[in-house]
Amino acid sequence: MRPLQMVDTKTQYLHIKEEVDKAVSEVMDSAAYINGPAVGQFAEQLASYLSVKHVIPCANGTDALQIALMALDLQPGDEVITPSFTYIATTEVIALLRLKPVFVEVDPFHFCMDPVALERAITPRTRAIVPVHLYGQAAPLKEILDIASRHGIAVVEDNAQAIGCDYIFEDGQKKKTGTLGTIGCTSFYPSKNLGAFGDGGALFTNDDVLASRIRMIANHGQSKRYYHDVVGCNSRLDTMQAAILSVKLTRLDQYNAARRQAAGFYDQAFAGCSSLLTPRRVNHGTHVFHQYTLRVTNGQRDALATFLTNRQIPSMIYYPVPGHRQKMFDSFLTTTPDLPITDLLTEQVISLPIHTELDTEQLSFIASGVLDFFKTRA
Questions:
Q1: Which of 83, 209, 280, 310 is the most interior residue, by most CB within 10 Å?
Q2: For the chain, what are the domain ranges?
């Protein structure tokens, strides 16, 4: 059996090595390392795949979120509502821009923003909502967008973990997550469903004015060289990463299908274990399983993680400390929010290996290891 990894990027590369090496070689031959033709080509390909008007590549997913908030022209002290149960990048950029993070609860089963909690959190100072499509699951966007529309608030989708996920409306219409809000953001970190061989990110929007502003901000605030209209930053997707991503984009649906197949194997294996809650599938989206995240309900999550480590089975806890309990936000919060579901999830969740290269032997070994743990405690 091949060694187990949370994400097997090397084996994935070996399957597309010839195409990737050719793409990289072409960039090297051109010596167009910054803003080479491959960057624009990739942006066009991704825009076509997502059916969105504008894709603006940038250096990483965190920059994408920061640029999105900058493009909305928010002012220090403006409130931005977001889940506490997410990776720190989502909320870090809010604080970085001297905005006020307002943390809200998530649903205990699909892990995404709770629209009821969102509605309660809105005040006259609320200027933006940042829902997160966590672990590859589509957040309840219809409800979130309806609330935002009623209050005249912008929505910035954090789609870093859900590229390729379909949001499904009640009438059966489908749109890709990341393309329904005011601005969508994603990351091409190597472990993502569409991962580069280094850092990378992008923003999506159907708004021409916002797209122009985003491009300026990502390029030192200039629309014409040496003429800087707004305060910006330097955030570029380099040409080599764009060339690699173009190769991998043609396989994104295949990659997501492989992740769903692996998730289905786990679901079936764990169906009879009363101490585990397998990931919920929502009717409004097609889960792309950036992570396969279980809830361990018998209080033995940490013991399970240790047991798996001893069997050389990787696992991860995403995320052990939620945003509202991070020291970095102490100066932004007058009191610690009461988020019991979020706190409970940080004590229960554990993620198992899931990626495009898992085979049946590996899946069986992982599932057996998890079940063996609970048998020893029966």
A1: 83
A2: 9-104+111-249, 252-375
Cα–Cα distances in angstroms (integers) from residue 170 to residues 72, 113, 135, in the given order: 30, 19, 23
Nearest to 109 by CA among 283, 303, 313: 283
pTM, 2 dp: 0.97
CATH topology of domain 9-104+111-249: Aspartate Aminotransferase; domain 2 (3.40.640)
State the Cα–Cα distance between residues 110 and 281, nearest whole angstrom: 7
Q: Provide the residue-wise pLDDT of the chain in tens; the chain has 378 residues.
A: 999 999 999 999 999 999 999 999 999 999 999 999 999 999 999 999 999 999 999 999 999 999 999 999 999 999 999 999 999 999 999 999 999 999 999 999 999 999 999 999 999 999 999 999 999 999 999 999 999 999 999 999 999 999 999 999 999 999 999 999 999 999 999 999 999 999 999 999 999 999 999 999 999 999 889 999 999 999 999 999 999 999 999 999 999 999 999 999 999 999 999 999 999 999 999 999 999 999 999 999 999 999 999 999 999 999 999 999 999 999 988 788 999 999 999 999 999 999 999 999 999 999 999 999 999 886
CA distance 296 to 304: 9
- Residues 228, 216: Cα–Cα separation, whole Å: 8
Class of domain 252-375: alpha beta
d(CA 30, CA 28): 5
Angle formed by the axes of helices 301-310 and 360-375, to 10°? 130
Helix, coil or strand: residue 206: coil
